[in-house]
Request: fold
Amino acid sequence: VILGTGTNACYVEPEKLIKTYSGPPSKSGEMVVNIEWGAFTSEHMGLTFADALLDEASLNPGEQYLEKAIAGMYLGEITQRMLLRLAQEGLFAGG
Reply:
């Protein structure tokens, strides 16, 4: 699992179960599979107003919701939007 500027994950799979691989067999009989989970997008993720605003202003709106929600590259902006909203509603820093 990678949690940094972006996010991604991989897992080890028995090579015989990977139907799309046509290269030489590995010595272990296993392969590391990159699942590119940062690209996961679903309307069921329960995005906040800050997530929606960040997505709207991004270079790829409507894509990579998971990465935008948890990756370090975006956390500062999400936090800033949350704190600004709290301040505007008088719930943080005296309004």
